[in-house]
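hiii so um. not sure if this is the right channel but i have a protein structure encoded as tokens and i wanna go backwards to a sequence. like what aa goes where. can anyone help
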């Protein structure tokens, strides 16, 4: 007797291969099973077969998918989930042409969120992050990453990391936590980025001991941290047993992407200005390129990361929201899928692989999330859509009908709609 049987699935997205992350041509492959069914037991996928075969199965609960699309739960591998305040007033500045890095230089941007985050209590941050997390889940996400980086001092960084851990322990979403201490140089350091970096490095032992993060991250950018500083921080993190990530080549082509590939980073993120050499290096490495086209869109830029070229060159590409209060204020990963189709020229198959299997690998969750396979967590979405092409096609709305996390209902739409 199974716990739940999902019957009458119009299209079931299965992996074309059990390996990952998928690179280049492998990103074009999706195994789509029509007229399918699946069974769940103990929070895991226990059986996958045809709808006819499922007639012989017994389950405590039976769900009729109504001929619709069922996919793995989406994975969002780059978010800044935990923060205080909001920055709606920056929008007018951006419209007036003030560049993102100039706002930061003047003490706004990331630094204004730092102030609000420092002022908020742990409970306030928890409630706010939980609100955003529920919205993220409603869009079909069952596993995500969350970065610190708005505390920029010991106590406030630990406060952010503890909030992410508590949210993970609450069990509704798997949250991979990343320590992004070197996100900006706070005003208290008077521009002394080396001194600040030393202080962030000195936190690594404590974070490890308290098991507050799996990865570290650094913002490698003009006026923030150099490639040399990024290398120093990443090497120190690796030595302490962390996986490493980097915000690389978002605005200026400094070479953070080449560094990520050379150092064996789990992911290099943004990559809007990544060089030809960076793309070659990534293709030859195990580093996943996490592209954030929602950020390029929200910052009003014309040039997007060269996703098409990256895939054609053999890079493992993933997509994320970059949800944060400044450069990409949306919890909607489905919207990012549409922007990836329109601006990165990615195909529907590539997009699905980018927000499932490759995203899971970018945050070290490839073994348990990102694909529907017997033995893996029963994290899945029943979509109010007839096929997998439909989600990036019909943009800006929420197509989730039922989001399941380890076999439990995480979010459900009240009524099903006609396409
Ligand atoms: N670019 C650096 N960090 C974030 C933005 C943070 C912010 O503006 O608050 C990003 O990934 O886009
Ligand atoms: Zn980011």
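sure thing!! here u go:
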């Amino acid at each position: 007797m199974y716990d739940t049987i999902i019957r009458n699935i119009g299209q079931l997205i299965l992996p074309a291969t059990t390996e990952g992350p998928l690179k280049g041509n492998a990103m074009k492959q999706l195994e789509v099973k029509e007229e399918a069914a699946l069974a769940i037991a103990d929070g895991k996928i226990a059986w996958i077969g045809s709808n006819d075969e499922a007639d012989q199965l017994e389950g405590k609960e039976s769900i009729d998918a109504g001929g619709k699309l069922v996919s793995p739960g989406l994975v969002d591998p780059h978010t800044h989930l935990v923060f205080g305040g909001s920055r709606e007033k920056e929008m007018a500045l951006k419209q007036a042409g003030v560049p993102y890095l100039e706002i930061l230089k003047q003490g706004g941007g990331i630094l204004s969120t730092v102030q609000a985050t420092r002022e908020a209590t742990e409970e306030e941050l928890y409630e706010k992050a939980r609100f955003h997390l529920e919205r993220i889940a409603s869009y079909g996400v069952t596993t995500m990453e969350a970065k610190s980086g708005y505390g920029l001092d010991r106590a406030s960084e630990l406060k952010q990391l503890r909030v992410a851990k508590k949210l993970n322990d609450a069990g509704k979403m798997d949250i991979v936590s990343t320590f992004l201490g070197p996100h900006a140089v706070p005003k208290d350091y008077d521009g002394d980025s080396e001194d600040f970096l030393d202080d962030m490095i000195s936190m690594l032992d404590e974070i490890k001991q308290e098991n507050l993060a799996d990865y570290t991250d650094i913002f490698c950018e003009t006026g923030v941290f150099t490639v040399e500083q990024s290398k120093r921080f990443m090497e120190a993190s690796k030595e302490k047993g962390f996986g490493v990530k980097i915000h690389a080549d978002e605005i200026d082509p400094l070479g953070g992407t080449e560094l990520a590939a050379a150092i064996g980073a789990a992911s290099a993120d943004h990559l809007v200005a990544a060089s030809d050499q960076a793309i070659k290096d990534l293709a030859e490495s195990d580093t996943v390129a996490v592209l954030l086209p929602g950020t390029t869109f929200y910052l009003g830029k014309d040039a997007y990361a060269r996703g098409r070229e990256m895939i054609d060159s053999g890079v493992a590409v993933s997509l994320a929201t970059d949800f944060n209060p400044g450069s990409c204020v949306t919890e909607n990963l489905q919207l990012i899928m549409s922007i990836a189709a329109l601006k990165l020229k990615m195909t529907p198959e590539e997009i699905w692989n980018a927000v499932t299997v490759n995203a899971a690998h970018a945050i070290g969750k490839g073994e348990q999330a990102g694909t529907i396979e017997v033995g893996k967590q029963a994290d899945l979405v029943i979509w109010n859509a007839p096929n997998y092409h439909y989600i990036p096609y019909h943009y800006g709305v929420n197509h989730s009908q039922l989001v399941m996390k380890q076999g439990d209902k995480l979010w459900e739409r009240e009524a099903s709609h006609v396409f």
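oh and The radius of gyration is 21 Å.
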